[in-house]
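Fill-in record for DUF1275 domain-containing protein.
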Amino acid sequence: MKKEFLACERKEVFLLLMFGAGMMGAYTFILRGGVFCNAQTANFVMMAVALGTGSISQGLYYLIPVCAYFMGSVISELLPNPVKKIHLFRWDTYLVAFEILVLFGIGWIPLTINHHIVQVMINFIASMQYNTFRQAESIPMATTFCTNHLRQTGIGFVRYIKKKDGQALLRGFRHLSMLVSFVAGGVLEAFFCSILMEKAIWIALIPLGIAFIILAYGDIKEEQRDFSSVPRGH
């Protein structure tokens, strides 16, 4: 029996990805240059400040992570159709496997190496993840940063108070759960950073590995490799 939602749309997958994203954010901030690579607003602000204060070369540097993020969104938009012709897994499943490989590789890069290399790698995979996973059971969701989740949590609670809208309250709690998952991932990663150093990013392989198993099982067993179905939001 075909389920209402694809495996890549399930809320538990989004929570696992958000948990991993919290780990990536804490890892790059603590060990890889004091930056947050899951989104690009800060890079645009820092580029503008650098250019505005006359630091042209420093300002132009920020084009590197911005372009990496841009290329991640472009590639993740182009690959799903060709990939589904393989008839093994959906694009979403391949992407999580790719993220696992990238993070595993990052764990072997010493902290003495230029942090920009790791930052760009995480820029790239975070962009692909953000662009690929868009709706959790029909609710628009981001899996790499928190701003909209905070906004939507507030909207849901206010609509419930004003209109007794139970569905709005449920959506608010869904967004709140994503925030909690992100923070929990960051807390756990921060703890392991001082113990495992550059290999602390391997802790993020746990939630991503579980997400991969859910996605792969859905592709092979539950959805019988029904690659014609398109996730909502695409």
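KEY FINDING: The first strand starts at residue 135 and ends at 136.
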